[in-house]
Specification:
elongated
């Protein structure tokens, strides 16, 4: 298995807040982050992951307000079914020792922020554009097939009329 797809999120997720967990897999660092927020009329989950300098994001629609244990169970059961956006190049961050007080302030600041990052929005927009082109081509093919069927049906009716049936 050359991809790390395990879930390592804590049991205590906070709605409208972000929970992120760094992990090691096959020698590469994996950072996954889940943000649960309310976007009228549904509760959404934005699941972001960063692996080997590649950033991917997936949008999850929960519907009614999910409980923490429901979110965790949902992630464990359905993680392999998530449709991630195309990879975006992520900036390599310098590994340096961070003062514990500064780290705590940074974590509290992230918890106070609501919404999700512009990088996630950009990745979701890219995924939406790709889905749109696929949907348009599929729709165009269906329309052409329907027009061809109608034309053949019309031709058959004219032929039957001409024969006097």
């Amino acid at each position: 298995m050359d991809r790390c797809e395990g879930i390592a999120l804590p049991h205590s997720l906070i709605h409208g807040r972000t929970a992120g967990v760094p992990a090691e897999c096959n020698g590469s660092k994996v950072l996954s982050k889940l943000t649960v927020l309310f976007e009228d009329p549904f509760w959404l989950g934005i699941y972001e992951r960063e692996t080997d300098g590649k950033y991917e994001v997936s949008r999850i629609i929960f519907g009614a307000e999910p409980k923490d244990y429901e979110v965790y169970a949902f992630l464990l059961e359905n993680h392999s079914n998530f449709r991630f956006s195309p990879s975006i190049e992520a900036k390599k961050q310098q590994e340096k020792q961070v003062n514990p007080k500064r780290l705590k302030r940074s974590i509290n600041k992230q918890l106070q922020e609501s919404g999700f990052s512009s990088k996630a929005k950009q990745a979701l927009k890219l995924q939406q554009e790709q889905n749109k082109t696929v949907r348009k081509s599929h729709s165009r093919l269906q329309k052409e097939e329907e027009e061809k069927r109608q034309f053949l049906l019309h031709q058959q009716k004219r032929k039957n009329k001409h024969r006097g049936h």
